[in-house]
Amino acid sequence: MRRVLIGILILAVVVCAIQILVISVSAGLPPVDALARKVPARTSLMRARAEEAAKKGKPYRVDQRWVSYSRISPLLRRAVLIAEDDAFFAHGGLDWNEIRASARANVGKGRVVRGGSTITQQLAKNLYLSNQRTITRKLEEVLLAVRLERTLTKQRIFELYLNLIEWGDGIYGAEAAARRHFGKSAAELTPREAALLASVIINPRKYSPVTPARRIEKRAAMILGRMARRGFITQSQYAEAMGLPPPPDSLAIDSTAASDSTAGAPPEPTPVEPEATPEPVELEPAPAPVDTIPGLPLSRPALP
Q: Which of 100, 155, 171, 204 could form an SS bridge with 269, CB 3.0 to 4.6 Å?
């Protein structure tokens, strides 16, 4: 009986300590309400990259061009969802199924081989946090993700993500990425270009969508395969993107119907054009974390 009471006491102390930590960390986090109306002028990641360049004595230029959600190709939107967070429109900021799957994979391999961060978590980290792998920083990411989900619409979160994500050295957002890598707007991307851009998100400064490495080609092929199976692209578009012979006419699907289909995947909201271009707002970084856990994943590659 005494051991049971001691166990209950220890559990109560641990729970209280966690609650105090959550309250303490949450109190120091920045508000996110302004993101519903304004565009961040610079993110924490942009500042960190600029500081890295400055330490090396190199100039650093940010190329980021804001475009509304509807001006980003549905092909790219769907490719990014498949690559990074297939359940984005179904979860509340944290994907517990993916977290469990990542934990099993990492335990099985004895090292970190798979992360569990959602698009919302990645946005929170890029906007406000450092790249330090710490308990406090990870907790801040989780709390900010929940706050973003409670404050903003799913479409707005995804719009911010697509416009601010890193897509190369100094390249941020879909529009800048499309123009720098492929010489066209984000609205004009082909299925293959969309899949390649989505594939390099795992490490955009290491991998190029223009000269894709074998790993990127493999990821792009998996993304294109899922897009074809879900009816987002036609069999002809899939074959062209994969460099395969065109299929018989009887297998081709009307391209308009295929591009509008949403069968077999989480629904996307109807794009809504903003009334005016949002005003830029400077973001204040969250407090620096302290408790280090080496090897904690910062983002989740959903595909090999």
A: 155
Report residue 218's pLDDT band, with 50, 70 and 90 as the boundaries: very high
- SS3 string of the chain? CHHHHHHHHHHHHHHHHHHHHHHHHHHCCCCCHHHHCEEECCCHHHHHHHHHHHHCCCCCCCEECCCCHHHCCHHHHHHHHHHHCCCCCCCCCCCHHHHHHHHHHHHHHCCCCCCCCCHHHHHHHHHHCCCCCEHHHHHHHHHHHHHHHHHCCHHHHHHHHHHHCECCCCEECHHHHHHHHHCCCHHHCCHHHHHHHHHHHHCCCCCCCCCCCHHHHHHHHHHHHHHHHCCCCCHHHHHHHHCCCCCCHHHCCCHHHHHHCCCCCCCCCCCCCCCCCCEEECCCCCCCCCCECCCCCCCCCCCC
Q: Which fold has domain 31-281?
A: Penicillin binding protein transpeptidase fold (1.10.3810)
CB 173 within 8 A of CB 167: yes
Q: Which of 169, 184, 218 is nearest to 198 (CA)?
A: 218
Interval 194-210: pLDDT, tens: 999 999 999 999 999 99
pTM of the predicted protein model = 0.76
Distance of CA 255 to the CA centre of its chain: 28
Structure tokens of 245?
């012979």
The sign one gets for the Cα dihedral 9, 11, 12, 14 is positive
**Could you state, in order of their start, the residue ranges of all structural domains in the chain?**
31-281
Largest CA-CA distance found in the chain, in angstroms, rounded: 77
